[in-house]
Every structure is written in C-alpha cells, then in structure tokens.
Amino acid sequence: LKIFSGHSNPTIAHEICHHLGIALSPMEISRFSNDNLHVQILENVRERDVFIVQSFTHPVSDHIMELMIAIDALRSASARRITVVIPYYSYARSDKKDAPRISITGRLIADLLQTAGANRVLTMDLHADQVHGFFGVPVDHLTALPTLVSHVKDNYDTSNIVAVATDAGGAKRVGKFSTRLNVPMAIIDKRRVSDTQVKQGVVVGDVKGKDAFILEDEISTAGTLISTVETLLAAGVKSVHAAATHGVLCGPAIERIQNSGIESVITTNTVTIDASKQTDKLTLLSVA
Ligand code: R5P
What was the ipTM of the complex prediction? Predict the structure, then answer.
C-alpha cells in the first residue's frame, strides 16, 4: 500500500500515514512556465494498491487538476488500484439543476475522476448523501460524526443541549447527532438569498433556555451559521455552539464567528486551517 498527497492537505495525509505506520510516498508537483501543471510519481508503483489524498480546497480548480494528473500518472505507471481520498469534496454542493442552463458539477467531477483512472473514492460527509450516486466507481462515504460526538460528550454538559439543523436539508444529519447525544432537536427554516447570505425564519422545536448545538456539514462563509446564531439568540437560547465536519472558513467567516454571539465552534482537519484563521472559539479535531 502506498499513500501520496497533493498540495491541498498534506497535514492529514501525513497523519493518515502516521496511523498506518508508513511513510508518505514522494510525488513532485510543479508548474511549467506556461502555467501547465506537471506531476511526477517519484517511486515505483507497479501492481501497488495506491491512495492519493487531496481535498477540494482553495484554489479548488488547481487542486482538482493536480489530482486528475496524479491519477493519470499512477495509471500510466501500472498501479494495480487507485483510490482517491477526498476528505472534502466541495463540488458536492453543485448537486442539482436549481437554475436554468447550469451544470451539475458534482457529477461532472465524479465522471472526470473515473475517466482519469480512479478505481475507488473515499470521502467524508458529502453535502448531500445522494451525491454518492454520482460516482461510477465504489465510494466509501465516511462521517466525522463519531469524532464530533465524542468531543461534545467529553467537553460539554449535554443535559441541557438541543441539537439544531440550520435548514430542512440538514435534519437527517442532525437527527443522527441528537440520537447519539441523546438530546432533543430543532430545525430552522432557511432560504438562501445569495452565495454569502441566507434568511431564516421559524424555529421548529423547543430551544428556549437551552444550550443550542448547531451541526453542519460545512462552514464556508459562515453566513448560515451566523444567521442561525442570531435566530436562536432571538428565540431565547442560553448559549450557542456549533460543530461542522468541513471548516472551509472562507471570506468573512472568521470575522463573522468572532463578532457573533456563538461561544464555540468545532471542526475537523478535512480542510487545512492556516494559523491566520485560528481563533479562541475554534477547536480542530483530527479525522485522519
Ligand atoms: C448548506 O446547505 C450547508 O449545509 C451549509 O449550511 C452551507 O454550505 C454553509 O455555507 P455558508 O457558511 O457560506 O453559509
């Protein structure tokens, strides 16, 4: 078994290798002067079971292209099986035709991975479970839920917690979270206004005086999160916390979290969080 890493998240790749007791295999990724990417596998992979770790993080297109080229290089080098490990599959959010003349890009990228030569995909907490079906190769769809739940159990008093879904789409996920924590749940009615803004209304469930724990697949601009925090505080909760598998934290996310009434945010290392994004409110767990 050999493990390679692209540029998006070498930290989790190294941690995975550490758990397995093997070294990360060398792969060189460079750029020609005309901006074309160049990937070279630096050891023999003939008939090997090979894994490449790459999250779809900023710059997403470059990271996807690195992965496609690496898969093709491994295939040309006669690897026996190529598994792509995509801790964060960002294009899972492009999963339906919700406007005229648009691409279902989550499916397109799945097709391209297969065309490049991926034999299997291992990913985590896709935005919607059904995105799994976009892939023509076997998918292991893992979840960070056990990691998040055990951290909550170990670090919070769960006796007054209500688990909160920011919209109806997240209800199933939050249902599993609330079952594992043995706490009640609530759902908020959300409408997306733009890429960075949402509007929320009715809270379905009893939240007054409770410690609200929001569960999300990802926190991107934190627009959803902050709107949920405001809705919950207006509804009379005692405190608000959040857990999300993917801490994308782009644009105004950190500032929004810092300036909001949320007390703590837990996320995982499916996405690398650089030092400039670290805040006292943020706890980073490993899912390696
Ligand atoms: C939306 O349906 C997702 O579950 C997340 O709420 C969303 O992707 C987060 O994006 P943002 O942080 O930009 O609101």
Answer: 0.92
